Amino acid sequence: MKASIRMKIFLPVTIILIAFTLAVWIMFRYTLDVHMNYNAKRDLELTIARVERVVNETYLASAAAKAIGAEEDTERILSLLQSEVQTEGTETRMLAVSGGYRVLHPVSFDDSPEMTEFYSLFLTKATGAEEFWEQGRILEETVGNGKYLLYYRHVENEDTDRVKHLILYTPIYDTSIILDQMSQFLLLIMIGIAAVTIILFWFVAGSISGPLIRLSEAARGIGEKRFKKVETGATVKELLQLEHEINQMQEKLEQADQAERTFFQNASHELRTPLMSISGYAQGIQCGVFEDTAQAAGIILDESTRLTEVVDGILTLTRMDQLRYQVVPVEMDIEHFVEERLERLEGFAFSQNKKLVFVPGSGHKMTVDAMLLERAFSNVVSNCIRYAKVQVTVAVEVHEAGVRIMIRDDGPGIPIGEIDRIFDRFHKGKNGNHGLGLAIAKASLEYMGGTIFAESSSEGAVFLMELPHDCRSFAPEEQVQK
């Protein structure tokens, strides 16, 4: 089963937060226990080091120890040991026992229950009832209700009244109660944080999934040609950008849909007019209405030519719209190409009492589809011839980015408000033919990676056709292969 994006975001975050909370709780319990044991052991080790120094330097290594009385010597050593054990900040305690198993330190050990228990344990081990402590190692012992870290030191001494057994011990506090209280408090805090975070992430995930759902509905509407601006209320930058792109796409698709409807309406009109004329004259010839059938046949031929041009233009635009036009790039001299095409248009210009003027450049070779360029160039020049007063001027300029062909007429110019529409399909000016010439020119140039735009002034209209030096890199089939 597929999960929603909200659950895809929410569930992993929830699992991570719960796992993190449990991990922190477990680590806290473990590290606190380890920390308490570590502190107790360190405290004992420091005390052991000081006691060993006193024993080695003051008791065992003292040459004068034999000369001193046993009682006096014992009191002196006990005093030194006591001063080393009872330092500030330590919890280590000492039990000093003579060779005759008499407690030398502390004197009033009966007042301390733990001392009594340690002494009883010592007597039990010393009399052989249990295995005696290993000397020089820190051991863990359970004495009474508590746990202790213990260190035993046997002092070589023949005098039974002097210190012979040293026992150092440090309590290991039972942290279970503290751990239970603190861990419960910590667990409550973590649960609270996790709950707040989960709630926040639920709304954060909703702020992403909600706009996506609305965008999906908008995409579904686009597929059904229901173009409506979508407002998701998203607060995420990427979603806002996606919303903007979808709205822009809807606007363009709506414009394209409207243009398609207009195109078919205009195309049907442009096709219906010559067909009606052809049909009317053919019926007239059939019924013997026209005495001069040659004239009627000429009109039928003219309308058929016009019909062919319209159909051919529609097919050309359709192939380019669907990227099905096969580009055939060839290398050519652009000045020679323009001059040759102008020669072919001389007859049409002469019939309109117009003059064609060519301003050649220095000669430049470029790679281009000759048929597309010829169609675009001829359509623009023919359009300028129809609107020019006296002449049409054509100039070729070569620059670093490509080639520019400038076509200028000395006519009235392009009316205000028309300059943005002259390249629309089936948009006809005052002296226009069927409204496809400039649209085909624009589509042909763009198909090769070029552009065309128009300028107007009181001195006439100017069309600027720009193309790259090599149009092969802009061929749609080559772009798909790349």
Chain-wise SSE layout:
Blueprint: H1 5-60, H2 70-85, E1 93-98, E2 103-105, H3 113-126, E3 138-143, E4 146-154, E5 163-172, H4 176-223, H5 237-286, H6 293-321, E6 329-333, H7 334-351, E7 355-359, E8 365-369, H8 370-387, E9 391-398, E10 402-409, H9 437-447, E11 451-457, E12 460-468, H10 476-481
Helix pairs in contact: 1-2, 1-4, 4-5, 5-6, 6-9, 7-8, 8-9
Question: What's the quick description here?
Answer:
This protein has 10 helices and 12 strands. The protein has 482 residues and is of the alpha+beta class. It has 3 domains: 5-178, Beta-Lactamase, CATH 3.30.450; 237-321, Helix Hairpins, CATH 1.10.287; 329-481, Histidine kinase-like ATPase, C-terminal domain (Heat Shock Protein 90), CATH 3.30.565.10.
